[in-house]
From TrEMBL:
This is Glycoside hydrolase family 88 protein. Keywords: Hydrolase, Membrane, Transmembrane, Transmembrane helix. Pfam families: Glyco_hydro_88. GO terms for biological process: carbohydrate metabolic process.
Length: 396
């Protein structure tokens, strides 16, 4: 009797573990039925924005590993998700919704949900409820600064703390570390994380050293982390040897560089002495990146290989870059066409629910990339951001 009882428990456990593995696969299959049916940009914009609003208060968890079997073990060991990943996911959603609210007659419920989100991150004095440890937080701080219906100065404590965190990560050669325990490397991700915040914060509060740090981060990466002759970034480089590390042409790496560069440039006022310097970088990078855009409008997860899988996160971030770069007369028409092609692809990659699909999962290490492609709040946010600016700027 005891043996039968134990056998029954084992069977139940096996069934539960199997279900945990099978349910996500089944849901993906169901949710991808009739994918890519959007034809009207306005309807698509409404759909992706409604999902973004929903996800802001409950951001979907992004897997740390690529494991698709026995994922219950990852859950029990705490390896299924990681909190720090969520900062850039939430930031992208907030950046997208900031553009939506700015450019539309947004319902009061939307602004309330954004304020509720802020209340979940800040105390009554405008400080972070949970002290941030990683520079990833800076992109979330930047997103908060882009909300023009709130008093940004109310959160000055959190913004100051973010600057102090970045300053604590400055290495001996003057650029910012991705992590304090990885001091000998510089990552392309860091450009997207910190540079827009540094410029926005520096301009708003008269801290020119912040602007200079952002420009230095970008220019040093151009000097040591770019493929000569093609001007696309490696994943990272080693500080002492200046040796490039990881993959040249990692799609989201191009995206991180692109959003860091274009948003930093956008935040500089006309007439600022550093604006022409960054504009020259934008022109060079735009001409390089557009070469790798595929016929369907997408960029692949490895942009240099047309056989590799299309990546919606790369396409959304580079689409955003191209749209904003089209303000520069020398590359305006090229960038408008590129941005419009990116939008056409992203519409085809959108589930009927409005969730944009086929984004590469979380990167494991330098040169170790996810082979899972699914929904990603980061991509959703940049699609919302891209679409609301595109519609109201009449680009294309």
């Amino acid at each position: 009797m005891m043996l039968q009882w134990i056998s029954g428990i084992v069977v139940v456990i096996i069934a539960v573990v199997a279900l945990i593995d099978l349910v996500p696969k089944g849901l993906d299959w169901v949710n991808r039925i009739h994918i890519g049916r959007y034809q009207d940009k306005q309807i698509w914009n409404q759909s992706i924005t409604s999902i973004g609003i929903k996800w802001l208060s409950r951001t979907p968890k992004i897997k740390v590993t690529d494991q698709t079997r026995l994922i219950a073990i990852d859950m029990m060991q705490g390896n299924y998700t990681r909190t720090s990943i969520q900062h850039w996911q939430e930031a992208a959603l907030l950046l997208g919704l900031a553009e939506y609210v700015k450019r539309n007659d947004a319902p009061a419920d939307t602004t309330k949900k954004i304020k509720d989100f802020l209340a979940s991150k800040m105390d009554a004095e405008g400080n972070w409820l949970k002290k941030p440890e990683h520079v990833d937080t800076a992109i979330l701080a930047y997103a908060i600064m882009k909300l023009d219906f709130i008093d940004v100065d109310r959160y000055r404590g959190a913004l100051d703390a973010t600057w102090e965190l970045i300053r604590a990560h400055i290495g001996q050669e003057g650029s910012v570390l991705y992590r304090t325990f990885m001091g000998k490397y510089r990552y392309v991700d860091t450009i997207g994380f910190i540079c827009p915040f540094l410029v926005a914060y520096g301009i708003r509060y008269g801290k020119e050293e912040c602007v200079e740090l952002a420009v230095r981060q970008i220019k040093q990466y151009e000097q040591y982390g770019m493929l000569e002759g093609h001007h696309i970034p490696s994943h990272a480089y080693q500080v002492d040897s200046k040796m490039p590390l990881g993959l040249y042409g990692w799609g989201r790496g191009l995206g991180w560089f692109a959003i860091g560069l274009i948003d930093a440039w956008n935040e500089l006022p006309e007439g600022h002495e550093r604006k022409p310097l960054l504009e020259a970088s934008i022109i060079q990078f735009a001409k390089s990146a557009v070469v790798f855009q595929q016929k369907q409008g997408n960029w692949n997860w490895t942009v240099t290989r047309e056989e590799s899988i299309p990546d919606s996160s790369t396409t959304a971030t580079l689409g955003w870059f191209m749209l904003n770069a089209s303000q520069i007369p020398a590359i305006s028409e090229m960038c408008k066409a590129s941005a419009n092609q990116a939008i056409q692809y992203l519409m085809k990659a959108t589930r009927r629910s409005g969730a944009v699909d086929f984004s590469q999962g979380d990167t494991k290490d330098i040169g170790v990339y996810s082979m899972l492609f699914n929904v990603l709040p980061f991509t959703q946010g940049f699609c919302i951001r891209l679409m609301n600016v595109q519609v109201h700027s009449k680009v294309g």
